[in-house]
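Reviewer 2 asked us to include a model.

Predict the structure of this chain.
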Amino acid sequence: MQMEFKRKLPVPSEIKEIMPVSKNVDEIKKQRDEEIQKVFKGESNKLILVIGPCSADREEPVIDYIHRLAKINDKVKEKLIIIPRIYTNKPRTTGKGYKGMALQPDPEKKPDMLEGLMAIRKLHKRAVEETGLTCADEMLYPENHRYLSDLLSYVAVGARSAEDQQHRLTASGIGIPCGMKNPTSGDLSVMLNSIEAAQCGHTFLYRGWEVTTQGNEFTHAVLRGAVDRHGQNIPNYHYEDLIRLYEMYAQRDLDNPSVIIDTNHSNSSKKYIEQIRITKEVLHSCKYSDDVKRMVKGFMIESYIEDGCQKIGEGVYGKSITDPCLGWEKTERLILDVAEMV
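Predicted model (structure tokens):
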């Protein structure tokens, strides 16, 4: 075997014991989870915004950004539920590049997974304690989920992971809304198969244990666009796409048919400024169909303090080192516009 076993890392229960959450954080999460789940059940007309940096690369600017979200949240909370995006693991198409804080807590230093696990827990914990907003993370590695399971209110499964069996099985037991993205091919049936699998109960091997799950009724679709065989981006947020997804949902016996629109990635061709137009177009589409309006539960938006992106080492505070993001001024205006349009 060519693997080098460097050291045994603490299991989630050990990390949680070192960095426990308070009763206040427990209560905040419980209240937030209930409020978010009501949206997916159709018991609340609020829209969800999963919004934040492409990657959470530095603690201080991320916390600064979430404080800004918390302030605007007070203005829009009657219409919107803001879920800050703290993505601490990054998938890389070629396997190269910055893979996120969980692996590399300092983007300019070598990977250190022990330090990374502590860093991501500290970051998520600070966010809830200081702002009262529980956050979202991507479940890139299913076995890592429990390091943050007592802090998160939303989980996303990416386009390259949605067809993976371990992601589907783990999603069936996490107990919070889980967004399954369509694969990069754009095949919506793959995404719906993932949702169906995650909404069922299972018995499987997880972190060395035989576990059973009851199924996750809050697993739902995320439309993120697609890529054709020539590498061209194909958006899937238009009215016709939403109607098609509604009709495909109607052919299956799934709980809480819902979709979140990812406004970046292949939907915007990673042109971050397009996220504003895409969000407003989808809201406009909701006015033409009650079915679409009931199905669309919100948006994923990549946003940070500064517009665009930078290379690692350039050192611009609050500017993405992965995909380009909307800056704060544009973000604030978009959030207020969305609240006005709902």
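The chain has one domain: 14-90+100-341. The CA atoms of residues 141 and 167 lie 8 Å apart. We have added this to the supplementary material.
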